[in-house]
């Protein structure tokens, strides 16, 4: 199996290295990832700057893939249209340092890279690990869990461009209880900003670190993660509101 591996934490991120090692047990892995961290850039792409591309080596000085001066979605586009000799059978994005459950799906560069792969009709899986900073995450163990989940997903007959979002609970807080297929949580999140004044008297803000969902909907990715389950959520990128579309068909429009 040919596997394209990308992320949004950067090509030298320990989560990506751990994920690559596990995925190599499943097939031939090529890395095409951002040269630096691109967390929370969503599905942005680069239009007005060149996508500088450099080959990168692994810890054994063997060719690993490419570092791209761009966004996660750029990496997938460039890999599929320019860099890979053959299209991959599978795209994996991760292993991300931090949860991409709930509305984080909309902000996540990790998920965006998987969505981009789905655009190209390739099965794509985003994988993320809930972390408890500043304690170092156990990426090797999390990558092992992620590989087990990936194996089970691709074992089933899938339609072209199938898209999945996988989240692994904080391994330091609770034993893993199992795997649950759940919907994405869309309950409101709590956000804070730290207001400050710079030396010239100008106001500025730092986004607070405590971005979370205090009251998630039941039977969703957020609640299952808190209960110690690995979550798998099938996604699609068609944002059309089907029920509203049907209702609006009866509206009378005039100019």
Overview of the molecule:
The protein has 255 residues and is α/β, with parallel strands linked by helices. It has one domain (2-191, 217-248): Survival protein SurE-like phosphatase/nucleotidase (Stationary-phase Survival Protein Sure Homolog, Chain: A, 3-Layer(aba) Sandwich), CATH 3.40.1210.10. The chain contains 7 helices and 11 strands. It has helices at 14-23, 72-83, 104-107, 109-119, 139-154, 221-226, 242-248, and strands spanning 2-6, 28-34, 53-57, 63-68, 90-97, 124-129, 163-168, 178-181, 193-197, 203-207, 229-235. Strands 3-4-2-1-5-6-7-11-8 form a 9-stranded mixed beta sheet, sandwiched between helices. Strands 9-10 form a two-stranded antiparallel sheet. It is globular and about 60 Å long. The model has no long low-confidence stretch (mean pLDDT 94).
Question: How would you describe this structure in keywords?
Answer:
about 260 residues, Stationary-phase Survival Protein Sure Homolog, Chain: A, 7 helices
């Amino acid at each position: 199996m040919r596997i394209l591996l990308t992320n949004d934490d950067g090509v030298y991120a320990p989560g990506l290295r751990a994920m690559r090692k596990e995925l190599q047990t499943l097939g031939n892995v090529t890395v095409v990832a951002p040269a630096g961290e691109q967390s929370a850039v969503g599905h942005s792409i680069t239009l007005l700057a060149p996508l500088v591309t450099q080959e990168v080596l692994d810890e054994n000085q063997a060719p690993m893939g490419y570092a791209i001066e761009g966004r996660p979605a750029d990496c997938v586009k460039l890999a599929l249209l320019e860099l890979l000799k053959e299209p991959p059978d599978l795209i994996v994005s991760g292993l991300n340092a931090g949860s991409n459950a709930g509305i984080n799906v909309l902000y996540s560069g990790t998920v965006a890279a998987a969505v981009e792969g789905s655009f190209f009709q390739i099965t794509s899986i985003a994988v993320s690990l809930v972390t408890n900073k500043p304690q170092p995450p156990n990426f090797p163990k999390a990558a092992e869990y992620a590989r087990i989940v990936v194996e089970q997903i691709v074992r089933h007959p899938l339609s072209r461009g199938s898209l999945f979002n996988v989240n692994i609970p904080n391994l330091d807080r609770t034993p893993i209880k199992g795997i649950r297929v759940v919907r994405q949580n869309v309950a409101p999140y709590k956000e804070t900003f730290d207001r400050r004044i710079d030396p010239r008297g100008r106001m500025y803000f730092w986004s607070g670190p405590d971005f979370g969902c205090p009251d998630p909907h039941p039977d969703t990715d957020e609640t299952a993660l808190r209960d110690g389950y690995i979550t798998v959520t099938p996604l699609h990128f068609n944002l059309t509101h089907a029920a509203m579309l049907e209702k609006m068909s009866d509206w009378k429009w005039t100019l």
